[in-house]
Amino acid sequence: MKESLLTAALCLITCVSGATAEPYTVIGLGFLPGGSYSAANGLNDAGQVVGHSNSSGGGRAFLWDAASGLQDLGTLPGGTFSEAHDINEAAQIVGQSEATEGLRAFLWEADTGMRALGVLTGGSASAAMGINDTGHVVGSSTIAEEDHAFLWSPAEGMQALSPLISGTASEAFSINNSGQAVGYGPTENGVRALRWQNPATPQDLGALSGGDVSYARDINATGQIVGNSSSQSVRRAVVWDAEGGLQDLGALPGSTLSYAYGINASGLIVGNSRTVDGQRAVLWEAGVGLQDLNDLIDPNSGWTLTNAVAINSSGQIVGTGVFQNGASQAVFLSPTQP
Length: 338
Prior knowledge:
Layout: H1 3-10, E1 24-28, E2 38-43, E3 49-53, E4 60-65, E5 69-72, E6 82-87, E7 93-99, E8 102-109, E9 113-116, E10 125-131, E11 137-143, E12 146-153, E13 157-160, E14 171-175, E15 181-187, E16 190-196, E17 202-204, E18 213-219, E19 225-230, E20 235-241, E21 245-248, E22 257-263, E23 269-275, E24 278-285, E25 289-292, E26 303-311, E27 317-323, E28 328-335
Antiparallel strand pairs: 1-28, 2-3, 3-4, 4-5, 6-7, 7-8, 8-9, 10-11, 11-12, 12-13, 14-15, 15-16, 16-17, 18-19, 19-20, 20-21, 22-23, 23-24, 24-25, 26-27, 27-28
């Protein structure tokens, strides 16, 4: 790739000479050829990023790393659209793609490319949302216009993750290396964040006091879970663990809305909070609380960070941002070295 194009695509922003060092530098990942929008959805410890971008050929799943930039992952046969949701340490990628048969969950590997994972019995569509390092995948499959959480494994294929009771839709978003999956589903108390130890035994994670709905979005290696819990007037980012139960992570000043999407092994949490100035990407740390990530980057960078969705063991973060009031694009945040 030509140097000028690489510079434009990455939009690498560092602190200006003589300025106080900020905790994070920002790299804008740009767009696929012909594109004007992109979003990051997943990140591994090697700093590889997955997400989606529009392009001259339609919406496409992408893989990004610092050496190669954006790579179009294509689509399943017959498709014109795809998006990637997660990546593991072996660089196996999952997401969903349009195909001749309809929308299908996919698994992408460098040697074999993209393959469909099928649907649950009676299903018409599927989407893969999370993958662990043993290649187990979670997501949802649509049956009679309603989503149903699934677990897919190389040995057993796709099987349903049972809800606590039959009823409204369920989805699974993340799975750790111990095989614990999280998402949401129907319970006697309404729609609740769920954790599955195995396909048949979900656990209701509850909701904040006064809350009537909760969702679980990510789980780390130690079993800490993040998501959100809401009532009619308040929706808050939350973290759950076996010792402390459900904890409200708060919101930025002047806001009642916050969302948590990712947590790393150290318990650092990322998401967003809505303010009078719009949506802002946030970082939560024990003992520090909720911080606007825009306060942790060079104020002269030109970036407004709107969402953070994943954080790895090195503290690298991915999400979306806007550069100098331009189009929304995927961003990669790297901790500034002292």
